[in-house]
Design goal:
About 20% of the residues lie in helices and about 30% in strands. The chain has a five-stranded antiparallel β-sheet, with helices on one face. Strands 8-7-9-12 form a four-stranded antiparallel β-sheet, with no helix packed on it. Strands 6-10-11 form a three-stranded antiparallel β-sheet, with helices on one face. The protein has one helix and twelve strands.
Length: about 250
Amino acid sequence: MLTHAPNRQTGLTLTELLIGLVVGLIVLGGVIAIYLATFRGSTDVLRSARLNQELRAVTDIMSGDIRRAGYWAGAVGGGMTNPFMDRTAGTATDIHILDTGSCVLYSYDATYLAGNTVGTVDAADRFGFRLTNGAIMMRSSGATADDCSDGTWEAVTDSKSVTIDSLTFSFAGSKCLNTNTSGAWTANAASTTPVCADNTASGYTAPTAGDNLVEIRQLTISVTAHHVDDASVKIEFDESVKLRNNRIVVAP
């Protein structure tokens, strides 16, 4: 009678088991690394999109309001002086760039506001934008035309998602035309001086007293910001705003 030896079950040796564990950990580590990279990439894209949306919105707000500078509801022609473009010391209402370029103040006839007197420069007619503690602030009213610490200011950026690193204004691109001599000059980059009074402007020629000057005004806005949760997610916006109201003045 034939007999068969029982089949022996063979398992893994300790060495084989350790090798299998190492290979498994390598594969798992690769999967986790890919997941984390994808997650970080998606997060960066979302943060960048949010930052872009926030800055696009605030530059639209700034450019839209600044374009109104110098508007006068009472303008009827005949050589009348626009009170919203006055640069007389102490009563100046025209657009100003102050605080080394980080603040702009301007005025226009805000006739849409209840109780506002048409044609008169009231506190409710003075507006502006400035950078304060990482946020862009908008002035809704003010007693003076040349003091960025005066007035009522409100934040127009969300400090929970965006930190504004820099905000600068300049008259770069503005032009002054001398209608008496056909002369013209253009404001240089970073200029904060109204172009018709800027003797450093490109092509500047000192006007003669009584010359008629036309100031074609342009304001350049530069904003740099980062996401509040990740300083590496940065963005920079540059916006050029053509003011609708040219300033016409007689050279002193």
